[in-house]
Every structure is written in C-alpha cells, then in structure tokens.
Specification:
Number of domains: 2
Order of helices and strands: EHEEEEHHHHHHHEHEHHEHEHHHH
Largest sheet: 9 strands, mixed
Oligomer: single chain
Radius of gyration: 24 Å
Shape: globular
Number of helices: 16
Helix content: 40-55%
Length: 399
C-alpha cells in the first residue's frame, strides 16, 4: 500500500458480471450478504443501499463505508446489465447444445491456438476440453452401449424388434445417466461460454457490440465528473472481456470529445480473467486493438487478480502476451498480474473443502474470507483507498 495516499471520498464503480443468466438481483444480494461477513474480518462497516433501476436499464446501489479509522467513503455501484443477452444465447435443448459443441470445437481446432493455451495455461486447456470429454465421450459411450446390446441379442438369436427395443432402452438409460452427471459437473455452462466467446470474436453478436457502446458512453459521462475521486471498472470472469472493450472505447470517445485534454485516470480491475477466449480468435482484430490500447495507456491503472486454483480463469497469464499484442520489448504499464492467494483467507481444512467446489472457487473473488488478506473485494470497491494506492507497483507486467 502507498503511504500518504489521499483517501477516496467519492467513487463510482462499473461492474460487469460473468456469463451468467442471473441478473442484478443476484449480485446485489451476494454483495450485501458477503460484505456483511467481510466486515467482521476487515472492520470496515459498509451500508449497502437498496437496488434501484436506472433509466438506462441498468441497476445501481449506494455504498457508505466507515471504519478502520478513516474518513467516510461514498460509492455509487453501477451494475452494467447484459444478462438479458446471455439468456438469449443460453441454449437449453440437447440438440442445440450438440450443434454448438460441434461448431465451437471445430473453430477451436481450426484456429491453431491450442498449443498456445497449452504453453500458457494447461489447466485452462483441460477446461476447454472438459465439455468435449464429458458430453462427446458420454454420448459416444451411450451409442456404443446401445449398439453392443443390439449385437449381443442378435447373436443370441433374439428377434430384431427385441434387439432394437433393447438397444434404444440401453441408449436412453446411458443418456439419462450422462445428463445426471453433466448436471453435477455443469460442463454445459463451459460449452455455452466457449460458443459465446467465439461468436464475439468473429463479430457475430451485434446486440452485444451495441451494449458495449452504451456502457462506454456511460463511462465517458462519469469521466467528466470532477468531484469524483476514483472511477473503478470491474470485470469478473467473462465480464473481463467486455470490460476491456468498454474501457478502451471510453478512452477513445473521451479523446474524440475533448481533443487535447488529458484522459482522466481509470482504475481497472479484472478478476478471474479469461480474455484469451476472445483475444485468440483469428477474426478478433478489433478486440486485440482494444487490448493493446489498454496495455499502453498511462491513464489506465489495470490490476488483474486470478488464482491458480481457479480452473475457470487464465490464472496469472498476461493477456497481452498470450494474445500477442502490444509493444515488442520495453516497458508497458498494464496489466499487473497478482494472485488473491485464496489459501491465506481460510483455515487449511476449510480451504481444502472449498477447492473441491470449482464453481465456488471461481466466485470467491466476489465473496468474503474467514481471515484477513491483502485481497479484499469489499475494501477495494467500498473502502477509502484507490486501487493503485492500495497495491502500488505490486505484481508483474510480463513482457
């Protein structure tokens, strides 16, 4: 932490959630509940106001923080809604999921980027192939089971009708078992994410692009607020991909509207990022340009927290480096890669139990801890210290 940093009295947060059909109500409830739990640990009392619907269709709530011997801090927390778009791209039928799986894995193979993922994040490669192994492998086993039953009965001299009926029954039972296993593993969620990211990479989501432009305009309006001490943009999970575009477009639009005027500082926080899902797509040229802009922008103070125990992220992988964008050699200001060190937040037995729940570990960035730790989502978003003041020059900018 930087000593002598001016306290934040007024902050505006723009939060972009992950690929989740849950909306602002879920995230407001999560923040309210977990913030109360965290206050016992960090001694920062935060009053979380009620959720209200803004005219732009997004949601917001107010945070009033006090404690830790510091000045009261007021935060306007803006939830940038895109869950309606997620629901439109959330196939539920098995046939549609099968189509998406075939299309997604064909694109992944044709891209030729699997070796890149292997070199930078082997866990993420396992995550990429996980749905294919579970759904594709399970479907193949169901077909083989049906065919095996039919062959065995035919070899035993059973009637053709009986053999076919038994084969269909065996296939159906195996498929039901597969669906039960999938419901516990939730591999279809990963498959939906991959399919959506690939569509975004090839520019096949015009409704998302329009939403990102609207979010960028909102950010530009907040950049004009001189009484604001910190403007903080938070991108969680797939929301980190969206946040890159929002911040980059806001910088460009501010420059176009105020030529010659310095761009106000933006604190940028990504949590459990999976930026290469789009950044490695062959047709994602515009996105890579936005990524490069943030990497070299002195007006953006970008910190990324990602944990090696989070299988849903490219943990501690510099997105500019893996996506091959930005300056060759030399220094660049962004991003700084840090680990939240989840293992320091809990007793060993508790942590071992939590690690078995992969979805919980991915959500831990937004949740309370049992023990004090350097990473504290609620102190970052509601406390009286700016992001860069809190972490200074911690972390590495990888070249």
């Amino acid at each position: 932490m930087t000593v002598g940093a001016l306290p934040v009295r007024r902050r505006h947060v723009v939060f972009l959630s992950g690929f989740d059909p849950k909306g602002a109500g879920f995230y407001h409830g999560l923040f309210q509940r977990e913030c109360a739990r965290q206050s016992v640990v960090n001694r920062l009392a935060v009053d979380v106001g009620p959720r209200r619907r803004d005219a732009d269709g997004n949601s917001a709530w107010r945070l009033t923080a006090s404690g830790q011997g510091l000045t009261q801090c007021e935060t306007s927390y803006h939830f940038a809604a895109w869950d309606d778009i997620v629901r439109r791209h959330w196939p539920r039928s098995a046939w549609r999921l099968l189509q998406d799986m075939c299309t997604a894995y064909a694109e992944i193979l044709v891209s030729g980027e699997l070796p890149t993922v292997w070199k930078t994040s082997r866990k993420r490669l396992v995550g990429l192939l996980y749905p294919l192994v579970v759904l594709g492998g399970g479907g193949l086993l169901a077909l083989l089971a049906g065919a095996g039953v039919a062959w065995a009965l035919a070899a035993a001299g059973a009637a053709s009708v009986m053999s076919v009926a038994a084969a269909i029954a065996a296939f159906g039972l195996c498929t039901l078992a597969l669906l039960r296993i999938e419901a516990r593993l939730n591999t279809a969620w990963l498959l939906r994410i991959f399919s959506f990211a690939l569509k975004q990479g090839r520019g096949a989501l015009p409704e998302l692009e329009a939403r990102l432009d609207t979010m960028a305009d909102h950010l530009v309006q907040r950049m004009d607020d001189a009484e604001q001490d910190e403007l903080l943009v938070v991108g969680f999970s797939v929301g980190s991909i969206l946040a890159v575009s929002v911040v980059a477009r806001a910088i460009q639009r501010f420059g176009a509207r105020h030529p010659g005027q310095p761009v106000p500082r933006i604190s940028f926080l990504t949590l459990g990022h999976c930026i290469p899902l789009v950044g490695l797509a062959p047709q994602a040229h515009a996105f890579r340009s936005e990524l490069a802009l943030l990497g070299s922008s002195a007006s953006v103070q970008w910190f990324d927290f990602s944990s090696p125990t989070d299988w849903g992220s490219f943990a501690l992988v510099d997105p500019l480096q893996v996506c091959r964008v930005g300056p060759e050699g030399g220094e660049r200001p962004n991003p700084r890669m840090l680990s939240p060190r989840f293992h320091t937040m809990f007793a060993p037995d508790t942590y071992r139990r939590l690690r078995r729940d992969k979805r919980r570990m991915h959500l831990q960035y937004l949740m309370a801890a049992d023990l004090p730790a350097d990473y504290d989502f609620f102190a970052i978003t509601a406390g009286p210290m700016a992001l860069a003041s809190r972490y200074g020059t911690a972390g590495k900018v990888r070249q």
